[in-house]
Amino acid sequence: MKSKLIGSLAALLTLAAFAYGCQSGSSTTGSTATTQSSAGLKQIMVERKLSEADVEAALLTYKPTGQKDEYVIFASGGQSGQILVIGVPSMRLLKVIAVFTPEPWQGYGYGGYGDKVLAGGQQYEIGQRLTWADVHHPNLSETKGDYDGRFLFVNDKANARIAVVDLSDFATKQIVPNKLVASDHGGAFVTPDNEYVIETSQYPAPLGREYAPISEYKTRYRGLAMFWKFDKVKGRIIESESWGVELPPYTQDLADCGKLASDGYVFINSFNTEMATGGILEGNPPVESGASQNDTDFLHVINWKKAEALVKAGKAKEIKGVKVLMMDVSGPEKVLTLIPEHKSPHGADVTPDGEDIVVGGKLDTHATVYSFKKIQALIEAGTHEGVDPYGLPILPFKDTIRGQVEIGLGPLHTVYDGKGFAYTSVFIESVVAKWDLKSLKVVDKLSVHYNIGHILAAEGDTVSPDGKYVVAMNKMSIDRFANIGPLYPQNFQLVGIENSKMKLLADMPIGIGEPHYAQMIKADKLKPMKVYPMGTNPLTDEKDEFAVTPGKERIERKGNVVDIYMTAIRSHFTPDYVEVDEGDTVRLHLTSIEQAEDQVHGFTIDMYNINVSLEPGKHENITFVADKPGAFPMYCTEFCSALHLEMMGYFMVKPKK
Ligand code: RUQ
Ligand code: CUA
């Protein structure tokens, strides 16, 4: 960061004024320009009530037109079911990726390939369709513990699903529904070489989503850690090679995957070892207090490589066609082990070297630092202080930890800078606490606005974080922005961490859903295509069998099925006049034959709820029944050229006699 160079307001203003002088094209000498502009800038600072620190923050984050961001954030879009793509340090919103929710701009869910992705993510074959998601934790694909910029995975807490986004075109390719559980939370986390995408359940329920009375909670309700096998070449989850590990009904919370020293292991928090089930009208305490009786909950440790071997050796049980390693195997085999943790913990975050696991306690003032070496030695020696009601070994707490850090009120999540420091979000206190991983002492605190949930760091979950920025993902923004009614935006705050003191650089209101986690990748690791190879179907990433080449546009009828082979290019569709009979099945094969960068068309047929986005080279197949007679304009919905409004035609549906 330039901040090291900038020692004083004078130096800052000289620098700013220099740029100002150049841009204004002043023909005066450098020194005169500096003086005049300094006076101008000082006046702006006074008028706008900007401090020296404000001006410095502006200089560190401002991107003049054409200058690109150094990092890219992929942030959860919360209830929107989408992913937000944000540039750093400018904190400009670059894109909203449609994932679990129909999204009109990308034409996702209005007749095109997105319908097929969304259909694959449905939990039930009949009945209501899921049209939203509670998006929590986006995770980038990894190679050797480093983000490789190829894929992005994210979970839907509300409907227990995992989505796969391909970063070669920033499009969602697959949604896999977890048929065994109803909600998830710990996910999507990846193993360091991305063999698996991990999804762990949140609220326990009978596996397979059967009914069992709540009185049978302890015997029938369970948690699950799902290991989704990922094929990096195909870029898809292979459901048939995926499997699960049964967990006790302790309400598993966040999870993280081991790396380097702890490669092969997964760590999952839990917060209701009391197994409280509420029942306020029945005279029971609500879950919030029922689940807070015990002094400790359990950190679950899974040896996933061993679990995988046991599943392959046929030791798993099939539930609804999914192989699940049950507790009567995983306990004795030392695949699943419990460690006490301070009550109601939240984040479980493995350090970049994989040596430690940091657990924040929502109701505690500490973060606990577990040592993987100690944990592993105890597991291997078979040392434990007892077993839980499900026969799972419990390790002695004292012997598993390296220490505890006095953080402040309500530590949640921890990220790392790769330089020996950890940064913990502290919800109740509304601060980021920076602490030394060696001494376990807090060295700096920064107020954020307000009530920070997650925190993320540049390349933060890799084996080598960059240590330049962290972002506070604040749940509340009272008094920060213009009043826009009782539903307030959340507030992302960019924090510079290059110097010993953290520095608040920029605020970004988030008015789209409530974000949870996000990850930040170096922008030059992303290498998406600029245009699709001609005729590409984004669902298969291949040339579609129905791709239309220029000159081969046509309309074919077989019985009451009409195939329309159509192309789009500035500024017309061919054919631009289509006539069918009411009740015909229409199969529209639509190829953009553009190959010029940023030449996007849209396509809609009025009144038919059909709407697709046609990026250069993209192909879409749209099948529908022409059930509404009339003369319907079909037109391009992107302002693609000077004759964009002329890019239209008619879709005629002749009424039945
Ligand atoms: S966790 S509430 Cu990401 Cu802090 Cu879901
Ligand atoms: Cu094509 Cu507007």
The rounded distance between the terminal residues' Cα atoms is 74 Å
By oligomeric state, this entry counts as: single chain
Number of strands: 45
- Indicate the low-confidence ranges by residue numbers: 1-7, 17-33
Mean model confidence by pLDDT: 94
**Percentage beta strand:** 35-45%
Indicate the structural class. Answer: mainly beta
Helix content: 10-25%
**Which ions and ligands are bound to the chains?**
(dicuprio-$l^{3}-sulfanyl)-sulfanyl-copper, dinuclear copper ion
At CATH level 2, the architecture of the largest domain is 7 Propeller
Give a written overview of the molecule.
- The radius of gyration is 28 Å and the shape is globular.
- Helix 1 (9-23) packs across helix 2.
- The protein has 9 helices and 45 strands.
- The protein has 3 domains: 9-61; 71-278 and 290-525, Methylamine Dehydrogenase, Chain H (7 Propeller); 536-654, Cupredoxins -  blue copper proteins (Immunoglobulin-like, Sandwich).
- The strands form 11 sheets. Strands 8, 9, 10, 11, 12, 16 and 17 form a 7-stranded mixed β-sheet that branches. Strands 36, 37, 38, 40 and 43 form a 5-stranded mixed β-sheet that branches. A 5-stranded mixed β-sheet has the order 39-45-44-41-42, with no helix packed on it.
- The protein has 657 residues and is mainly beta.
- Strand 6 (161-166) and strand 7 (171-177) form a beta hairpin.
- The structure holds (dicuprio-$l^{3}-sulfanyl)-sulfanyl-copper and dinuclear copper ion (CUA).
- The site of (dicuprio-$l^{3}-sulfanyl)-sulfanyl-copper has 11 residues, from strand 25 and strand 29.
- The site of dinuclear copper ion has 8 residues, from loops.
